[in-house]
Amino acid sequence: MDERAVIVPIPPRSSPTSSYWQDPPHQLATHRTTSELPGSTSTVIVGSGITGASIAYNLLAQHDNRQVLMLEARTACSGATGRNGGHTKSASYRAFLDNVQDQGEEEAAKIVRFEYNCMKAVHAFARDHKLECDSWEGETVDIIYDQGQWVRAKKAISEIKRILGDDDPAAQHKFHDASETEEIFLVGGALGSVSYEAGSINAYKFVIGVLELALDRGLNLQTDTLVSSINRSEIDRDGWVVETSRGSIRAERVILATNGYTSYLYPAVRGIIVPLRGTVAAMRPGRSLKEGLQSTYSFIYGNGYEYMIFRAAGSTFAGDLVIGGCSTKAPKEGLYEWGTTDDATMDPEIGQYVRDSAAEYFGSRWGEDHPSGRIRKQWTGIMGYSSQGFPLVGSVPYERDLWIAASFQGSGMVLCFHTAKALVTMMNDGNNQKLDEWFPRPFRMSEDRLKHKFRGRLHEKSPMKFEGHRQL
Fold first, then answer.
1. CA dihedral in degrees (243, 248, 254, 258; nearest 10)?
2. Residue 107: is it exposed, middle or buried by C-beta count within 10 angstroms (0-12/13-18/19+)?
3. What is the largest CA-CA distance in the chain?
4. Pair 112, 170: CB distance under 8 Å
5. Average pLDDT for runs of 10 along the chain of length 472
6. pTM above 0.90, yes or no
């Protein structure tokens, strides 16, 4: 892992695998607000996913007349957000015991509430602004196959209820034994399951909607504009020079909303933020599942998990299943997927596992494949993971007017939207005390965050001996 963590990343590939969510692309995909880049601007945001779009929206909501320029290497929202699995799910209990031990009860509770509230806020924003993004709110279930994971889940949720209180919305979980799990959720062979509130959304359409609102407020969006470097201005040491494929821009401040690609532009976080390639497939359900499912899923085993949503009624391709994860099932637990920013290719073994997963989990309840074939589309995307398992948000140490919001651990849909709000608050008020009431302190960028050695994906492996599950 040490070698994989410090691989020099490549910039976004010009021809990535085709994402289900971006087919067909929105008319905003190749948008350029102005035909030429401005020579200078107040604020440059690098990245047009949910983080960058939400930061732009919050900045422009202030009406302070500052110019905001967004630079995207490819088409709008073509990175991780537009390539994800469609889940809005805060499985906070899985990291809770570690967070209590490392951060204390107060911060651990704050993280649980932050993720839950962010998830709710995404759907509320979509509803309030009438964004057509297939927003669905309901129940998710974690199907658990490993004894260690089962015991840990029970202990974690008991502690969440003790610390947050039984009535806290973020503390609501329900356990099901093996027979209930099979009867309700149609999956056999598990030790049991835990269900709780979650949702699904077309994140691509959601972000396009946020970008349209930001454009109405004055955002200058420039797609197909690769940023190759950011450097201190030699003329004005308080400013930045942003070098792009279309020329140079002077900026008063720069915000990196670049997630797994961040160390490509800012090498100081190499080994601190490490990219991980994920694989996702959209598929038609088996004929015996034609009535559809009522929950989203995760399938948790000793050293990893898969996640799966169903496309709700009214969605494009309603009833489709979207499933991802699976990298730990590859040889060496998918070690070679770390450190890569190549989303133009796919590991064949992981790809095959993803294609087979849903039918394997549902067994005889899957039935025959759809006459048109099981797989509708399969693709990859690049996530960002940090050495401590938390996002890095705030002012970059030793760098005036360089800001970062990145490394969302594959859970961006329950982190990014409110992280953007927090970052803009920091940019306006510095160490705002009110921010500490709801924004987890472990998420803040600091000198100390740059010292921690990367340890791989945290909070996943069973604390007990891995009993096994389907292998590649």
1. -40
2. middle
3. 70
4. yes
5. 81 97 97 97 98 98 90 98 97 96 97 98 98 97 97 98 98 98 96 98 98 98 98 83 97 97 95 95 92 90 94 92 86 87 96 95 95 97 93 96 96 97 91 87 94 66 48 37
6. yes
